């Protein structure tokens, strides 16, 4: 028998279920609305050009849908840059205009991270020149690397590191036989799949994750594979050489040896 009390009790129970469902849906919607760090941007106010996230940049690079322009200096770019990015320094806006004369061209600019003004200034100059589809990956190189992504080093950058950074670790990702035959003085041999072991056995400097690590191999693809694994071991200052071991040979780097590079027994 449906007494008023029973009806009231049934109604309250139904209301409770509905309220719980509403709270669950609301919590789920809020959780989905909060971006991950890969989807985040700086959200800076009053910017003339919009920012994109790391996730957005990864999609652009994977699809090659638009140019990604690194507007840092040529040496900075050569030392380390996001793979797939092209280098047109900040001072050369005219070159961007000449290379991409259509003002509707979609393009993304990037530089040295949240506090780098180069991409902001360049994007503003392009807007003033009539360009309407300019975006910025303002998080730049530091955040790209912090999120476990590897970067590329060109020959000029490799030579600079070899000469100037006496703490750098060079990783030879070729076969043990090739490594034993000839390599850069004091390089360590690390193959694909060995990053974890190398982190533990001393081939990588696990006491200082900020040490510069540069990987080279017979092909850029082979070097990149190992460098990507090393980056995931928290070596944020790691990169891969975008050339080949033969390029290093022709640059006579194997002859430019110095005592500091290998102070201990080999």
Helix count from the secondary structure assignment = 11
Q: Radius of gyration, rounded? A: 26 Å
Q: What structural category characterises the helix and strand content?
A: alpha/beta
CATH class of the largest domain: Alpha Beta
What's the helix-strand series?
A: HHEHEHEHEHEHEHEHEHEH
CATH superfamily of the largest domain: Rhodanese-like domain
Globally, the shape reads globular
What's the domain count?
2
How far apart the termini lie comes to 92 Å
**Sheet with most strands: strand arrangement:** 5-9-8-6-7
Low-confidence stretches: none
Structure explained in plain terms:
This protein has two domains: 54-146, Rhodanese-like domain (Oxidized Rhodanese, domain 1, 3-Layer(aba) Sandwich), CATH 3.40.250.10; 152-257, Rhodanese-like domain (Oxidized Rhodanese, domain 1, 3-Layer(aba) Sandwich). It is globular. The model has no long low-confidence stretch (mean pLDDT 88). With 266 residues, the chain is an alpha/beta fold. It has helices at 4-33, 54-63, 74-79, 93-99, 118-128, 140-146, 155-164, 176-181, 195-201, 220-231, 245-250; strands at residues 68-70, 86-87, 107-110, 134-137, 152-153, 169-172, 188-189, 213-216, 238-241.
